[in-house]
Design goal:
alpha/beta; five-stranded antiparallel sheet; 9 helices; globular; binds adenosine-5'-diphosphate; binds magnesium ion; transport; amino-acid transport
């Protein structure tokens, strides 16, 4: 299958098992949302997809091929990631935050990197902020810059880890809107989120993670309207 598949992912930190069997199926062009309680292993799981962490058991397939034998640097060129805390370089302009990885990792020329970066910033509504430092932008603008930086690499897949959790409430909508646009344009995405409204509307499939196990998965209509497992029912009654 083209897209992202994980099978029976296990991972421990020391003697503590954190992932104990996580399965995910996201078709090319689709969006999966991963939901679950704090500490259930969502961030850890997301990091196994681009090999920031290595599972002790199980497999991650990208377009049908295991990523586990692949060079991690090459893999991260194909899989973009957006973090809760943006991870922009604070001492560089927004433009340079985008051009640096383009030059270093994709190896494009300075002129081309600037053209690509300016185009991406324009697409996320930040054309006027290219020369500003991250600290001079709102959290929402910084997150949109981080998304633009990832998109500039032309990834096959985008991973989002609680991309709106650090934002003031009034800034959340703009970032979720950008993510929904990307999903609508056919980007393949795996989105860890607390935003159940986003999961309901933008996801093709929702995976509920609890204590390191993918307990239940299905289309949003099924997960939110007809949950089966008692743990998912409890989780939804806590958050909705
Ligand atoms: P979530 O993102 O769902 O809140 P995490 O994946 O961050 O959950 O964490 C799952 C569990 O693994 C938690 O108990 C957390 O304390 C533990 N954990 C996460 N990262 C590490 C680490 N680097 N070393 C040890 N334990 C960790
Ligand atoms: Mg997390």
């Amino acid at each position: 299958m083209s897209g992202v598949v994980t099978r029976d992912i296990h991972l421990s930190f020391g003697a503590t098992p954190v992932l104990r069997g996580v399965d995910l199926d996201v078709e090319h062009g689709h969006t999966a949302c991963v939901i679950g309680p704090s500490g259930s292993g969502k961030s850890t799981f997301l990091r196994t997809i681009n090999r920031l962490l290595e599972p002790s058991r199980g497999d991650v397939l990208l377009d049908g091929r295991s990523v586990l034998g692949e060079d991690p640097d090459r893999l991260r060129r194909r899989i973009g990631m957006v973090f809760q805390q943006f991870n922009l370089f604070p001492h560089m302009s927004i433009l340079r935050n985008l051009t640096l990885p383009l030059r270093r990792i994709r190896g494009v020329s300075a002129d081309e990197a600037e053209a690509i970066a300016r185009r991406q910033l324009d697409l996320v509504g930040l054309a006027g902020k290219a020369d500003a430092r991250p600290g001079h932008l709102s959290g929402g603008q910084q997150q949109r810059a981080a998304i633009a930086r990832a998109l500039a690499m032309e990834p096959q897949v985008m991973l989002f880890d609680e991309a709106t959790s650090a934002l003031d409430p009034e800034l959340v909508k703009g970032v979720l809107g950008l993510m929904a646009d990307l999903a609508g344009e056919g980007m393949t995405m795996v989105v860890v989120t607390h935003e159940m409204g986003f999961a309901r509307e933008a996801a093709d499939t929702v995976v509920f993670l609890d204590e390191g196990v993918s307990v239940e998965a299905g289309p949003p209509s099924q997960i939110f309207e007809a949950p089966v497992s008692p743990r998912l029912k409890q989780f939804l009654s806590d958050v909705l």
